[in-house]
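Project outcomes to date are best conveyed with an example. Our students and postdoctoral researchers have been running inverse folding experiments weekly, and each run begins with a structure described purely in tokens. The record below, which covers 308 residues, was selected by the lab manager from last quarter's runs and is presented without edits.
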């Protein structure tokens, strides 16, 4: 079955300090023609270029929280957009507190940006839909970290239904608008009073997909309520299980905990990342997670994972 594009390119899967060849958090989520940037750790623009991400398609940036390893790439990236004479507005979704320092930094060069930034500031409130298009909606969910932090859920709206041509041929010829109604899942009322039942002449071919970004956070089994049935979950796994106490005290998670949550939530795929620089290899993280949840993958930078 031919699904439209929905995939994530990992730009950075390290945690706060540099090391082990990994970089701070950033991801490019591709959906149809759109590219959403999620977090923007130091050097994100270099890796967008290196991995050939079409960055002129980025119109929304979703920031989880204001720790440096999730935001220090923003001034550089926005400056480059300015130098490229970008004109299209960009929306930045972020916990309150980023706007002032970022605007200050960007103004130190003495020029105003060639494009507008629209700020959507999240202010310790609960879960909330923050953005939507015809095809996708994005929800911000508060996470349990040392400072105000949000996870983001990217959820496709229902795909158009497919017309069953043979079934439809039993009815009078329909116009463009009536066909569109059928694809949207509606019955069609003919002038004659006859009703064409949607369920008879169409079928659902593609399931709506979803992607959840869950970094940084402590483990909570209660998250499974909101993550239930997600197609793909990216969950931080800063530590291995033998450092579970450290994960607790620093408000992070282990690979095992990420896998337990994926299992409880019945997601299809688990991606883990945000690895501490103390680990030269991340294969132990993958092993630990796969013992509980076989469809778990320790992500690698430069790789693209399909949401399916
Ligand atoms: Zn953090």
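After processing, the design step wrote out the following sequence:
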């Amino acid at each position: 079955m031919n699904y439209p594009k929905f995939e994530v390119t990992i730009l950075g899967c390290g945690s706060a300090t540099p090391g082990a060849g990994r970089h701070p958090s950033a991801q490019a989520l591709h959906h149809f023609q759109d590219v959403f940037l999620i977090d923007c750790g130091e050097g994100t623009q270099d890796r967008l270029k290196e991995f050939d991400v079409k960055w002129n398609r980025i119109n929304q940036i979703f920031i989880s929280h204001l720790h440096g390893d999730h935001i220090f790439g923003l001034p550089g990236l926005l400056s480059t957009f300015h130098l490229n004479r970008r004109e299209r507005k960009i929306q930045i979704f972020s916990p309150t507190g980023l706007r002032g320092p970022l605007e200050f930094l960007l103004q130190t060069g003495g020029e105003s940006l060639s494009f507008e930034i629209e700020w959507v500031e999240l202010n310790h409130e609960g879960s909330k839909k923050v953005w939507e298009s015809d095809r996708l909606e994005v929800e911000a969910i508060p996470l349990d970290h040392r400072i105000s932090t949000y996870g983001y859920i990217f959820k496709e709206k229902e795909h158009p239904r497919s017309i069953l041509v043979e079934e439809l041929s039993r009815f009078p010829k329909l116009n463009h608008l009536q066909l569109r109604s059928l694809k949207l899942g509606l019955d069609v009322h003919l002038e004659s009073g006859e009703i064409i039942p949607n369920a008879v002449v169409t079928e659902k071919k593609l399931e709506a997909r979803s992607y959840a970004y869950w970094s940084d956070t402590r483990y909570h089994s209660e998250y499974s309520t909101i993550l239930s049935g997600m197609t793909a979950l990216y969950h931080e796994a800063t530590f291995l299980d033998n450092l579970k106490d450290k994960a607790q005290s620093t408000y992070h998670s282990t690979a095992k905990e990420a896998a337990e949550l994926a299992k409880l939530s019945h997601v299809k795929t688990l991606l883990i990342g945000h690895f501490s620089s103390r680990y030269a290899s991340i294969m132990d993280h993958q092993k630990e997670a796969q013992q509980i949840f076989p469809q778990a993958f320790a992500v690698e930078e430069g790789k693209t994972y399909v949401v399916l």
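The first helix runs from residue 44 to 50. The chain has eleven helices and 18 strands. The training component of this project remains on track.
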